[in-house]
Amino acid sequence: MATEIRKTIINNIKKAKYFSVIMDCTPDISHNEQLSLLFRIVNMNDDNSHSPEIQEYFLDFIPVQSTTGLNLSNVLIDKLNEYGIDIMNCRGQAYDNGSNMVGKYQGVQTRVTNQNPRAFFTPCASHNLNLVLRDAAKNSSRASTFFGTVQRIYTIFSASTSRWDIFKKFCSIFTVKQWSETRWESRVNSVKALRFQLSNIIEALEEVSETANDSIAKSDARSLITEISTYEFILSLIIWYDILVQVNIVSKSLQGKDADINISNDMLQSLLAFLKSYRESGFMNAKIIANNLAEEIEVEPVFKKTRPRKKKKNFDYEGNDERINDEEDNFRQEYFLLVIDQATSSVENRFKQIESYKDYFGFLFRIGKLRYANDDNLMKYCKDLEINLKDGNSKDIDFMELYNELINFRLIVNEETTPLEALSVVKYSSECFPNIGIALRILLTIPVTSACAERSFSKLKLIKTYLRNKLSQENLSGLSIISIEKDISESLDYDDIINQFAAKKSRKVMF
Questions:
Q1: DSSP letter string over 93-158?
Q2: What is the 3-state secondary structure (H, E, C) of 3-37?
Q3: In Å, how far are 47, 51, 361, 382 from 436, measured between CA atoms?
């Protein structure tokens, strides 16, 4: 069954011609490093009843002994040769942000690009969003302390069934969650539980401090009550919840298989606009909400005065550093603005690659709006795209033909027509607009995230468990592809597969 599914996928990739490679690694239960290999294509669907669609296919789990850029790139190239897929038709690469993948000199993306300059590399946007938040949190010691406190609240309740029962008695809407260092989406849920149940959690901690038999648990509960019953913590809770919710919305939109460069760029620009707007008015709005929450738990909405830390001065030091005496201004400048400015800077720096696609694919994002474009500018767009889709004498499109096609095509679609919708129009008149079809297929083939590789790891963990840790690699890959590509496996002709299986496994030999 796995062989037939793999054949179907490979045929679809060859039929689509242009493809993107998505790879990621993870250790399995036997401590073997497994490389997940996936492909992204635009399936034109020969059946006229179906529109073109973006598809991401899982093909294999490959055990790797070394995760260097050289070894992983060799594994990829060997697999492409095994499948009979031409690497020169690769138009996109998506990996996580490990140096072995994204390195400029020895990374996988560089080695693939050296063979095929048209294999555009895009760092995983979801991983980059995690790094944006990590940069923002680590830029402030107060932010690091805040998340440490949130984690301690989960730990104290989850460490004992009796304490968990106390938590459930007081908190019935949300449960406290453990957050992950690499998955910032988990922090939204952990912060949400405190944001909307702070008074209930304080009551639960008070009961723990009174009834727990463990003296350490009593001490931790009393310490946590003191920490979370401060105005600074309440304000931090409101600020981080606002930020994390917006980032989580963008992150989820980027992880869908239908996400393309246009959608991703729009979502990232909206996040950037939110951060800039929140910098101006977010602090005052957060204070209003924090004041109401502080009143609810009977905490005075004032900032605690801290003793100024004395710094050692060198002999030739000219003057004293001026410290902000107003605690509110100190909190705003050394915490709020520090976090927001770092997050804004990280978004601008980490997503330059996606932004750069606008320079040569941007005019295809909304083809209908080209009716208002100057013809000279349209000619320039077509020339630039031809240059970027050219490798020596080989080129994907002809700029003059693309220009002539767009002159007519831009008038037959709506102004808000998306690239995938435009491709549906092209499908039924492919002979008239071949260059537009190629350009749109390449645009939609380029991935913006490697989230589908992460999803394949979920199946790996379910299939290869500690009870099946001796599962062979062939069975692991076979069971995984049957499970992940469920739609294809359900459409197979089982009678034919059974006959093939019987022929291979026959114990009778005809003399």
A1: EEE-S-HHHH-TTTSHHHHHHHH-TT-EEEE-HHHHHHHHHHHHHHT-HHHHHHHHHHHHHHHHHH
A2: HHHHHHHHHHHHHHCCEEEEEEEEECCCCCEEEEE
A3: 20, 16, 12, 10
Give the model confidence (pLDDT) of 184-242 as tens digits: 567 788 888 899 999 999 999 999 999 888 889 899 999 999 999 999 999 999 999 99
Q: In what order do the strands lie in the sheet with 19-27?
A: 53-63, 33-43, 19-27, 90-95, 120-123
Report d(CA 147, CA 158) in Å as an integer.
Answer: 17
Phi and psi (nearest 5°) for 55? -130, 140
216: Cα separation from own chain's centroid: 39
Largest CA distance in the chain: 102
What pTM was computed for the model?
0.84
Strand-pairing partners, residue 58, are 38
CA 3 to each of CA 55, 62, 191, 474: distance values in angstroms, whole numbers, following the listed order: 19, 15, 46, 10
Q: How far apart, in whole angstroms, are the C-alpha atoms of residue 8 and residue 5?
A: 5
Render pLDDT for 5-44 as a digit per residue (tens, 0 to 9): 999 999 999 999 999 999 999 999 999 999 999 999 999 8
In angstroms, rounded to a whole number, what is the distance separating the alpha carbons of residues 441 and 430?
12
Is residue 445 within 8 A of residue 437, CB to CB? The reply is no
Read off the amino acid at residue 58: F
Could you give the CA distance from residue 109 to residue 73 in angstroms, rounded to a whole number? 8
- 426-431-435 Cα angle (round to 5): 65
Is the CB of residue 208 less than 8 Å from the CB of residue 217? yes
